[in-house]
Amino acid sequence: MNLRGGIRQRLEQRIDGRSGEGILTAVYDLIDRLIPLADGRILGIGVGTPGLVDSRQGIVRDAFNLGWNELRLGELLKERYGVPVHVANDSQAAALAEFSFGGAGASPHLVVVKMSRGIGVGIVLDRKLYHGDGNGVGEIGHVVFVDDGAPCRCGRRGCLETLTGSESILRFAQAAARSDPSSALTRYAAAPEEIDIEAVSAAVAAGDPSLGSHIADVGRAMGRALAALVGLLDIHRIVLAGSVAGFGPALIDPMRNEIRSRALPPLASETVVETTKLGNDIVLLGAAALILNAELGLP
Ligand SMILES: [Zn+2]
User: Fold this and answer.
1) Is it the case that residue 299 has pLDDT exceeding 70?
2) For residue 74, what is the enclosing H or E element?
3) What is the longest distance spanned by two Cα atoms in the chain?
4) CA 62–ligand 1 middle distance (angstroms)
5) pTM exceeding the 0.85 threshold for the entire prediction
6) pLDDT digits over 78-89, tens only?
7) What is the CATH number of domain 21-94+281-296?
8) Which end of the chain has less Cβ packing within 10 Å, N or C?
9) Half-sphere exposure of 80 toward its Cβ, with a 13 Å CA cutoff?
10) Is the pLDDT at 272 greater than 70, yes or no?
């Protein structure tokens, strides 16, 4: 990326089936191939990753999906490439991206909710990414919302993620497609196991009533969590990002209603909930913003 967050070169690599050391090798491989493509000096390497991240030390404490535990990623990359390296959790990177490149306006505070497989919140307070005391800012996805609810990959049951994460939505949609072969989903996916979030989104937009009402439930569950956040922080702008945010009004309208009916009215009426305009590149942009912020003091 250049200093304005413009993407100059892009490489992608799938990691399916790999874990731990295998994914680290994939990261090395990507950076090895990217560096020769740069046409100027490299200011640094920014990394956005799922999991609990100690940003100050560049350590990925725990990332279930990647099989990374206590990985000193910042140090490893710095030794290998000899440039400054900054590492953040993906939701925190998304918050920084939105603040730097998303047209945040005059407010020095911002909340970004990343709804994908996991649910994470990134918080900008007084123009700075909020890091908290430990490494777990924004881990609201693993707060239990339903007693004895569905099992969660963290080992407990009924976490917010089991209600609002993309995997729970896909499980619901796949079950719906299996039990009703005339479901609108069959138009957008050849078989139930091929249903992805885009297919569910298309079926919801086409007016499938059962999927539409499930997405409204997802919106309401998220709205309950956000109402608490509105009451706690009084931050007026909440931006949604991630694959689940793509459901648009079907998700956001019930979410807004829930916030309005649960948070104190003067606070709720000031709160704007919207979808990011930065699209799927939001974490990449956040990784670039980490470097601009740490190395050049921007924004
Ligand atoms: Zn959990």
Assistant:
1) no
2) helix 73-81
3) 57
4) 13
5) yes
6) 999 999 999 999
7) 3.30.420.40
8) C
9) 16
10) yes
What phi and psi values does residue 94 have, to the nearest 5 degrees? -60, -40
Ligand 1 center to residue 148 CA distance, Å? Answer: 12
Does the pLDDT of residue 73 top 90, yes or no?
yes
What does the alpha-carbon distance between residue 129 and residue 111 come to, in Å, rounded to a whole number?
10
Residue 157 dihedral angles phi and psi, to the nearest 5°: -125, 145
Q: What tens digit of pLDDT does each residue of 174-231 get?
A: 999 999 888 889 899 989 999 999 999 999 999 999 999 999 999 999 999 999 999 9
Using the mean position of ligand 1's atoms as its centre, give its distance from the Cα of residue 139 in Å: 9
> Which chain residues have CB less than 5 Å from ligand 1, an ion?
142, 152, 154, 159
Output the CA 14–ligand 1 centroid distance in Å.
25
C-alpha 160 – ligand 1 centre gap (Å): 7
CA of 3 to the centre of ligand 1 (A): 37
Q: How confident is the model at residue 36 (pLDDT cuts 50, 70, 90)?
A: very high
Backbone angles phi, psi at 124, to 5 degrees: -105, 120
Tell me the CA–centroid distance for residue 159 and ligand 1, in Å.
Answer: 5
pLDDT of residue 11: 95
- Residue 113 CA to ligand 1 center (angstroms) comes to 16
Structure token pair of residue 142 = 């693993």
Helix axes 209-233, 249-262, angle to 10 degrees: 40
Sign of CA dihedral 136, 137, 140, 144: positive
Q: Helices 166-179 and 209-233: crossing angle, nearest 10°?
A: 160
Task: List the domain boundaries for the chain.
Answer: 21-94+281-296, 105-276
d(CA 103, CA 276): 10
